[in-house]
Specification:
Blueprint (H helix, E strand, L loop, with lengths): L2 E4 L15 E10 L2 E11 L12 H13 L3 E7 L2 E9 L7 E8 L8 H15 L4 E6 L3 H10 L2 E2 L5 H6 L4 E6 L1
Parallel strand pairs: 6-7
Antiparallel strand pairs: 1-4, 2-3, 4-5, 5-6, 7-9, 8-9
């Protein structure tokens, strides 16, 4: 039984427990106001144990810790003591919609409703906080974009400038709450 619970800020250090591996074979691109798909070969290995790149444990801790320090909330999906999924909620995004800033579920635990349960925790918290919209920058893979669409997110015509600058290849989406 997977338990979903609010985590403490220092639990961000546990992200190394999540196995993000995936072989992406269908990628999405935002072109001419819509989504286009292409066959791709994008390996997504585990986060690197060393270094500070965006694909390393330390790089992600450094990138995501400020979200928590600025009032964000981290939810974890636990299989016993093992962190197998996580989501981070940012209640404010430069005075605009709230943000589902991070969502990951370990390989082997996907397609079991864990991402949906984590997303629902974020959506509930956003609603309780008075947010009327929730923004996400989705990895441009079929699994990520399809998941967010199934949750009710839709493409944004004009991405949030700060997030677009950070993740221009991502598919920027929004949900009306």
């Amino acid at each position: 039984m997977i338990e979903i619970k609010e985590m403490i800020k220092s639990d961000i250090d546990r992200i190394a427990e999540i196995d993000r591996t995936e072989q992406v074979t269908l990628g999405y691109f935002f072109r001419d106001g819509g989504l286009e798909s292409e066959t791709v070969d994008w390996p997504a290995p585990r986060w690197f144990a060393e270094g500070e790149s965006e694909h390393s444990v330390q790089g992600n801790i450094e990138a995501w810790r400020p979200y928590l320090e600025q009032g964000g909330t981290m939810f974890g999906a636990l299989d016993g003591d093992l962190l197998v999924g996580m989501a981070i909620y940012r209640p404010e995004l430069a005075g605009t919609p709230a943000q589902l800033a991070v969502l990951h579920v370990s390989n082997g635990y996907r397609r079991k409703g864990i991402a949906t349960r984590l997303a629902m925790e974020v959506i509930q918290l956003a609603r309780q906080g008075g947010a009327t919209k929730l923004y996400v920058s989705a990895t441009p893979s079929q699994s990520a974009v399809g998941f967010y669409q199934s949750q009710g997110f839709q493409l944004v015509e004009k991405p949030h400038p700060e997030l677009y600058a950070l993740e221009p290849e991502d598919i920027h989406m929004i949900m009306t709450l």
